# Entry
Amino acid sequence: MDLLLDVRDLDKSYPRGGATVEVLRGCSLELAAGASVAVMGASGSGKSTFLNLLGGLDHPDRGEVRTDGRVLDFDDRRALTAWRAGSIGFVFQFHFLLPDFTARENLLLAVRTVRDVTDDDRQRADAILDELGLGPRAEHLPGELSGGEQQRVAVGRALMNRPRLVLADEPFGNLDQDIGSRLGELLFELCRREGASLVLVTHDPVLAGRADRVLHLVDGRLASDAAPAE
Ligand SMILES: Nc1ncnc2c1ncn2[C@@H]1O[C@H](COP(=O)(O)OP(=O)(O)OP(=O)(O)O)[C@@H](O)[C@H]1O
Ligand SMILES: [Mg+2]
# Structure
């Protein structure tokens, strides 16, 4: 069986002054299509760094990322960008919505990066906004939305191109915990329905428990719940 994502032995360090900060050491992850995994770890443990490598936003010092059996070429920026646009939905901690475009237009911009927008796309955008409880907000600009609503639009944008993989980096970390975990549940539900795999960075252990697996990033290494780090 081809894994959607087969990540092997990633190392990543950052130069700092004359020294280097070692962030990831031999991090591996296997993810089947439709599966979910939660990544937990202290602030600064390297969770965002790891997610950025999975999505080809940064390159590892060592190790490889395979999708569908093909090794990602981190030097081929154009191929990486095309793969990201078509296969991956990112949700960052900050929404990065374009301020001069409405909620609906922000979803459609995801399509526009790969092809022309069709009437089907407009219907899909509205259906996704409805599911996210944003039907009445479709014409609002990001500045006319609450923080939670902005993050929900960001989730909608991530799902718009039917990605096979959603990478979400503490998407609701800035929100009230109750609202954050409710939106997290919704994210799991939408990914399940869309058949997308999900890698979710979260500080919320209850939400993490919704994932098929929970991994902890400790001292640059990924440990599963079943085998806790020493
Ligand atoms: N460009 C960079 N140059 C130097 N050091 C960096 C760089 N980016 C990240 N780091 C360091 O790498 C470590 C991991 O950062 P990362 O952002 O991945 O942590 P994180 O687990 O996502 O933390 P948080 O929970 O606060 O978001 C941190 O110690 C950070 O200071
Ligand atoms: Mg982070």
